[in-house]
Amino acid sequence: MTLTWQKSSFSGGSGSGECVELAAGRSGTVHLRESDNPTTVLTADAAGLAALLKEIKSGGFDRAG
User: Domain named DUF397: which ranges (predicted)?
Assistant: First the structure.
């Protein structure tokens, strides 16, 4: 299956290569990758993606110091 990747609208336009890209998969899956490392892909279903986004928004992945 060939995926069609879309750059996040929140990605910077500075050309720094720091972009999150998304692609829709089969059976409701979503694929995520970072543009500077396109061979590493995270795949999630709708519930998994919602949980990931909730954790990111809550600061659950913020690093201390």
Answer: 3-57
